[in-house]
Amino acid sequence: MTYYFLPGRLFTLSKAELLSVLPLYVKDFTLEYAAPSVIFVKTNSLEADLKQVFERLGGFLGFGKVIDENGQFLAPFMDKEKVTFGVNVYGKVDGFDYSSGKKFCEEIKKNLKANNVASKYLFATSMVLSAIVVEKEKILERGFLMEIFKANGKLNYGMSLGVQDIESFASLEYDKPYTDKRMGVLPAKLARMMVNLAGLKPNQTLWDPFCGSGTILLEAFKQGIHVIGSDIDSKAVRMSEANIEWLAAKEGNKSTKYKVFKMDILKPDSHILGLLRKTDFDGLVCEPYMGPPALETIGEKRARALLEGVKSLYVALFEILEHSKLSNFNAVIIVPSYRTPRGWMTLSVSDFVGKRWTILNKKWGEPLQWSRSDSIIRRNIFVLSKRN
Ligand SMILES: C[S@@+](CC[C@H](N)C(=O)[O-])C[C@H]1O[C@@H](n2cnc3c(N)ncnc32)[C@H](O)[C@@H]1O
What we know:
By secondary structure, this protein is α/β, with parallel strands linked by helices. The chain has helices spanning 11-25, 47-56, 98-114, 131-136, 139-142, 166-174, 188-197, 215-222, 234-251, 270-278, 300-322, and strands at 2-7, 30-34, 38-42, 60-66, 82-90, 118-122, 143-151, 154-163, 205-208, 226-231, 258-262, 283-286, 329-340, 343-345, 357-359, 368-370, 377-386.
């Protein structure tokens, strides 16, 4: 069976995320990349396993099953009384504009009617229905969502099996009790993608040593990953705790564990350090303090000072990790780049990680970045692996 995964705007980051999560649920698979529109996954695994993969992902808008050329895709709906269906057209697809798309929907409707199946369809003027409409109209439950996209120089047709749960991201972003804007907050989707890049399964344990109001902790907790958070700021510790308690109550989750405590990574208390060294954690995901949100380019001197600050946090963190008992451990970290009048300034990871760490980014071919064209601070994501 061939499945398709439709990435968001950052193809390389999404691809790295999919490559980190797929092997956790699916044994045998081969991938085919048709950048920037789609990634095909060929596998004999169960559809339910692929669904579990998709539901974890932050960087994909949808996924589904490719309809092969001889496929009778309407056959399963011919014995229904009433069907609601939708059609999505991704990117520039020759021969499809709004009016030809509507004609295509009318053809399907006629076909269903010829078999005594009543139908209602939805086709957006933008040619892609919003996830909210798909959810509200229960299109996947009451019928089907057909997706058309160009890849490998030809038209591909697919039956959607899931669209991104935008409301769940929005809820973690806006409904939680506390957000600490002063310190900078990670977008929930990026936090989800970073947690996934660590390749952890439910019931493993993740540490965020700069947890702030807990964006990373929440995304991991939501997936059943036990979380440990620490921060220099007691207010941040309280906010993270309150946010996790809120999520645990909202989801009725009593089995996933969490612990949040105060810790200055530059001057760790020897008792806490001892506990951390004995703790069995399986992965680390974090964003260090990178300065206040910036609206205009940053002077070179200021950028150098901010980078020195980030470097000292990482030197201290990797010193702790160096002496911890870790096996098959991934650390997913953010290294900032600052836009200065003389160009971008950043740090080299080899300035703070020892030789026992491998930088996994190399296998994905391009830098993993989260930024927009007008960003002043760019987030570079590094996945580092320590094997014993
Ligand atoms: C960019 S914020 C993290 C935001 C977090 N990812 C979120 O989305 O809520 C960086 C955090 O690092 C913490 N921090 C700064 N210096 C620290 C230190 N020496 N030890 C531990 N935490 C520190 C700050 O208090 C701040 O909460």
